[in-house]
Amino acid sequence: MNAAARLGAYAAGLAVVFTGAFAAAGAVVPETTVSAWTQQAEGTQMAQHTDSGQDPVETTSGSHAEHTPQGVSREQSGYLLQEVSAPGTTGDAGELSLTITGPDGAPVTEFETSHGRQMHLIVVRSDGTGFRHVHPVMDEAGRWSLPWQWEAAGTYRVYADVVPAGAEQNLTLTRTVDVAGAFTPAAPEATATDEVDGFQVSVEGDLSAGSTSDLTISVTRDGQPITTLEPYLGAYGHLVALRAGDLAYLHVHPEGAEPVAGEVSGPDVEFATTAPTPGRYYLYFDFQVDGQVHTAQFALDTTGAADTRPSAGATAEGHGEH
């Protein structure tokens, strides 16, 4: 049977103010002149947002712009993703581990459960390949870890998606890990289809920049629709979207009540998501059949003119439920 579909899209992030240039200018330019430049720049920015139909965006360090995604910083709301430890070369069996510290500087040891897990760890290479979605285990000291081995060299982005106890929002903290060795960066072509483990998976719908887009992902095998999609992390499918270029992070789920154990669905899973800017986005779709999780990958380009206003349903936190 088909699952009902409704989803709140999540897209939010940090707006960073670059004040270093003005600080440097102050060494050779009178302070009053630098102050005037600053006020003029802020006034111009406010006017540009007003003319475009946006509410003015604060330019104070640490403020949030609702139309930009998370997953581009190792710090958020005082929480910090400490250095990630992992094997330095390919083929070496080892451990990937990390710690998250709180506003007080101490390791966080209490987290809320979100879609069945206290941490969703996403790992992907800078060219969009090598995607993995895993769930490490935390020890009493707050150190998260799991066995790890790299299959290919390159620079990888690691995302820790968590809800610390007492935090007002979901956090997506990120760092990079360099894996030594020669590699040729991939250049994924735009594609709305993929074949994985004998399943044919396709996505339909246009991805529009700045507004909510409805996407339908369908799973078939040998031309026959798959109607035995099993619940995975509290849903019939799990979708991660990353913006090509900076790998900014959007995390979405299908709508509807959490499936009952033993209930199945398919072949379609519907999502709603928002691309904050025009460009290409990598999409990774996890689904489960017969107890086995499979991951299909797509690359979609946005269509239509960009609307930079926050979309309805987007939250200042950058996520709805995970």
Walkthrough of the structure:
The protein is built from 2 helices and 20 strands. The strands form 5 sheets. A 5-stranded antiparallel sheet has the order 3-4-5-9-8, with no helix packed on it. It has 322 residues and is mainly beta.
Pick out its properties.
mainly beta, five-stranded antiparallel sheet, 20 strands, 8% helix, disordered N terminus
What is Rg?
21 Å
Q: What is the β-strand count?
A: 20
Task: Identify low-pLDDT runs.
Answer: 1-67, 306-322
Helix content: under 10%
Beta percentage is 25-35%
Shape: globular
Signal peptide: 1-23
Keywords: Signal
Region (Disordered): 42-76
Biased composition (Polar residues): 42-63
What's a concise summary of this model?
This protein has 322 residues and is mainly β. Helices cover 8% and strands 35% of the residues. Mean pLDDT is 78; it is low at 1-67 and 306-322.
